[in-house]
Amino acid sequence: MTEAPDHPAPPPPGGVLWSLTGDVRALLMLPSAFVLQVAHPAVGAGVDEHSVFRTDPWGRAERSLRSLQLWVYGGEAAAEEGRRLRRAHRAIRGTDAHGRSYHALDPAVYAWVHATGFPVHRHAARYLVRPMTEEQERRFYAEWLQVGRILGIRDRDMPQTVEEFWPYYRKVLADEVEATAVVRELLATDVPLPPPDRGPLPLRLLLRPLWPLLWPRFARFRAFVAVGFLPPEAREAIGLEWSDAQERRLRLLARVVRAVVPALPERLRYLPRAREARRAHRLSRAGRPAR
């Protein structure tokens, strides 16, 4: 196994991540990945003690999404973003709920945060896009490993094949994850959320007076998709309930999303950085400079 290179390249244009990560449907997958991350006691403790997810949830979400988009579409900026994240996590340390010391850059903990994206996106894509073929799944995992190298994760700290990943994943589910305090808080539907402070000013002004009515519905929807798009084995390991009625509602939502999103124009279907990268890639293939 090799060390992560100093200047790892982002995943290739046209790959699985290139198509999946910039699609607006990915926004429905991210809450599940965050829940699975913080279900690890060390990650949950780090987020509980050091994150601004309570005081600045919209800003945190925006920064996380911007970072994720850079890993895939950032070109030369991807590696610098990975280095920035490692610098930002150096001071994150403390003691978890079981009295155990943790550090955000502990290789096993740091690798788990990244690893969660693979099973969550694979599972959610079955609902929101289409099930991956075996070849697509292998390509997706190889590209996810490449993103891990951008983040500074060494090859020896991550399973290098899909076949090696599943035993590792099941072992962490069996031995580590639990309904941490942060998991419970993220899925709570009675904890008030501040009104959005990101996005176009007219939209924020419109939402502000309506927010007392909207935030409980938003909180319920967020909790619903966060639990719903978790792989069933992850829900079971954390101890989250999921009923047949909820599953039927999730499938109905997914059918609507699958029908609507592919019909959207590109400016609405893809997130801004993804749109820019896709346009630049088309122009480069045509031999024309991007403006």
Automatic annotation (TrEMBL):
Sample GO molecular function, one term: oxidoreductase activity
Pfam families registered for this protein in UniProt: MPAB_Lcp_cat
Domain ER-bound oxygenase mpaB/mpaB'/Rubber oxygenase catalytic, residue spans: 18-259
Record's protein name: ER-bound oxygenase mpaB/mpaB'/Rubber oxygenase catalytic domain-containing protein
Species of origin: Streptomyces roseolilacinus
